[in-house]
Specification:
This protein is α+β, with helices and mostly antiparallel strands. It folds into 3 domains: 220 residues, no CATH class; 114 residues, Sulfite Oxidase, Chain A, domain 2; 112 residues, no CATH class. 42% of the residues lie in helices and 23% in strands. Strands 2-1-9-5-6 form a 5-stranded mixed β-sheet. Strands 11-10-19-14-15 form a 5-stranded mixed β-sheet. A 5-stranded antiparallel β-sheet has the order 12-13-16-17-18. α3 crosses α6, α4 packs antiparallel against α5 and α5 packs antiparallel against α8. The protein starts with a helix and ends with a strand.
């Protein structure tokens, strides 16, 4: 009779291998957002391009650790796909591009280790970690919107070197020392290295590399913005831009891009929108990209912030447009295809003092994060703010016991205040439709708790 152990040997990756990769991919995907925030903080303090790249190695750390434990060619590729999928599904602002970034990193981790007979050598770790981490700079350059005075070969080289050094330290030396300590302590038992897997590893690597090239080519075409942008919604007349009949001239503005003072040349967004004659009650502008990503800015910011520009990339059929300049970096939208003006009504929140607080999305933009929400008509990426923050802003001092979410289309939902306060994932999401806004109570996992919300009552 065939034992379970013998059955496992008939598969390339054992159940144990897959579990290790799944756990490490989940950890890497979830921590990615916090690593980016830490990198941005240090860059703001340093004030030069590439300040975020010091932490880039932490993104690849998990892939290298997985390879160091499993030690089978193809581990890096599987890890890259798994980690990218976790980041994509958790609402990473880069969208599907992050899947390609992680896949290329995984390919290079496999490549780095395949070059060495001894997969446990320090040099193998350093090469795999350094190359994989540096690749993120090169992949992002294919899609990124960066002003011309930064996008020079020397700047790209500097960013690549910084990222590679980060990879050597955090994705090379660190996992090497960690795995050796775990091995010596008996926590991890490394498999016996087999030479016959070397040839299979090259086949897997080359096949995946071809796939990555095709994937890149498809993404470049798919994610490229439209040649013309539609301005619609709460306007007197729908407008297409560029439009030769409009007398709008390009202007140059200096603003901070990731901690660096940079010059941008583009069309003032407020002037473009004024030609569409927005309705007097218009108070929100939705910016939507070709990959489905969308974010909003308030009409007040549009009128007061002269730095908000529509910047053209390329010419003719290769032209696309990007938004730069909003206060929130999340509203710097690449490859814009649609600008929709909304006359949004606030959501009433009644507190125990019989006072009514009006939740208006435009005032909470900086607090929002996006994720895929499973709406009845299909999944959509929505922006949401933690409910506890909204409740605390509307409540005036008395003890809260519970919060009631009311709906005109479904049964009311009551949740204990302590449950809400302790859960940052319970969020009030904004669903922007043609010319209006509705509200959804859901979790960051995408599960809806109640929709649509007509009002909120605090007890």
């Amino acid at each position: 009779m065939t034992t379970q152990k013998e059955n496992n040997k008939s598969f390339y990756f054992t159940t144990h291998d897959l579990l290790i990769m799944a756990v490490l991919a989940a950890l890497g995907g979830v921590t990615g957002t916090y690593i980016n925030a830490l990198g941005d903080l240090v860059q703001a303090a340093l004030g030069f391009p590439g300040g975020t790249q010091w932490a880039a190695g932490f993104h690849v750390l998990w892939i290298v650790i997985a390879y160091g434990i499993v030690q089978k060619p193809g581990t890096g590729i599987v890890m890259g796909l798994l980690k990218g999928a976790v980041e994509l599904l958790s609402g990473n602002s880069h969208g599907i591009i992050i899947l390609l970034v992680d896949l290329v990193a995984g390919i290079l981790v496999d490549f780095g280790f395949l070059l060495f007979r001894n997969k446990r050598s320090l040099l193998a770790y350093i090469l795999a970690g350094g190359l994989a981490t540096g690749s993120n700079v090169l992949v992002f350059q294919i899609f990124a919107t960066i002003p011309l005075n930064i996008l020079g070969l020397s700047a790209i080289a500097i960013l690549f070197i910084l990222a590679t050094l980060s990879g050597i330290v955090f994705a090379g030396l660190s996992p090497y020392w960690l795995i050796n300590m775990l091995t010596n302590a008996g926590v991890v038992k490394l498999p016996v290295q087999r030479e016959k897997k070397q040839k299979l590893g090259w086949i897997i690597l080359l096949s995946t590399l071809i796939f990555a090239f095709v994937f890149t080519f498809v993404l470049v075409g798919t994610l490229k913005g439209a040649e013309t942008i539609k301005i619609s919604g709460a306007v007197e007349s729908t407008l297409a831009f560029p439009n030769n009949e409009l007398n709008i001239k390009k202007v140059t503005r200096q603003m901070v891009y990731r901690g660096v003072l940079t010059s941008y040349e583009g069309f003032p967004l407020s002037e473009i929108i004024n030609y569409a004659e927005p309705h007097k009650d218009m108070n929100t502008v939705l910016l939507e990209a070709s990959d489905g990503y969308a974010f909003m800015i308030s009409a007040d910011e549009l009128n007061e912030n002269e730095n908000i520009l529509l910047v053209q990339q390329g010419r003719g059929q290769n032209a696309s447009f990007d938004i730069v300049g909003p206060e929130s970096s999340k509203a710097w939208v690449r490859n814009v295809i649609d600008i929709r003006l909304i006359a949004a009504k606030g959501l009433e929140i009644n507190n125990p003092q019989d006072e009514t607080y009006l939740f208006e999305a435009k005032n909470w933009i900086s607090e929002m994060d996006s994720t895929q929400i499973a709406l009845p008509e299909g999944s959509r990426k929505l922006q949401g703010v933690p409910v506890w923050k909204v409740i605390e802003a509307s409540e005036t001092g008395s003890n809260i016991s519970q919060v009631i979410f009311k709906s005109e289309e479904s049964q009311d939902l009551t949740i204990d205040w302590e449950t809400i306060k302790q859960n940052n994932d319970i969020r009030l999401f904004i669903l922007i439709e043609d010319e209006s806004i509705s509200y959804v109570l859901a979790e960051m996992s995408g599960d809806i708790l109640i929709y649509p919300i007509s009002s909120i009552e605090i007890n």
